[in-house]
Amino acid sequence: MDFATIVGLIVGVGAIAGSFVFEGGRIDSIFLFPPMMIVIGGTLGATAISTSLDTVSKVPTYLKLAFFNKTYSFNDTINSLVKLAEKARREGILGLEENLKTIAEPFFRKAIQLVIDGTEITVLREILETEIAYIEERHRKGIVFFQKAGGFAPTMGILGTVLGLIHTLSNTSDASKMAAAIAAAFIATLWGVGLANLFFLPISDKLRMRHEEEIAHLELIMEGVLSLQSGENPRNIRTRLLSFVSPRIRGNEL
Predict the structure, then answer these.
(1) What is the pLDDT of residues 180-194, one digit of tens each?
(2) 32 φ, ψ (degrees, to nearest 5)
């Protein structure tokens, strides 16, 4: 569970809702079905048009990635690569085959399997770079989906407000109810702006951060495996791969 995402949502929503209540407002007055339907349904529809139904169907997966973080230990990966390089120098590349079942990361395992299979180093680099490129493309779809939703939501909120005002001003027979109806019309704008800035855009940025972390980890693995394939000294491999790790962490864990 990513507590930063949870705490951020609670603090953001809580601050806005709390200030509204302190000013004498009622929370239940915000939860009106028509404006919520316009904003949420309109935003999802517009986003589906600009992306694809396949991307929309993967929204639960994207949300899972945002709320449940996967941590990457760069130092553990470096240690594993160095140990594999040391073993390869002692026993040869084929000696790494028994280590395959201990590697949980699919990309890492595939890279080592390619090395064991005797893949030429330039071909190996091309294969791994292509794999990373496809992973980047899959990640980009989720990032763009929430980014687009964050752009459409405020506009849908304004659209809902305009429709509410049209309905209100076309029924002016009861002036005493007009003020309440006008206030209710602006709830759509509240939902549009609120969802964009407290949910859609933050989730997009969170997915981008997850993407950058994973790609950096995969690039570390690629560089380490290529160095192993070329027969580099394990000590030099460690030194090269430490450039992927924050200087603050290097001395603490390695």
Answers:
(1) 788 888 999 999 999
(2) -105, 130
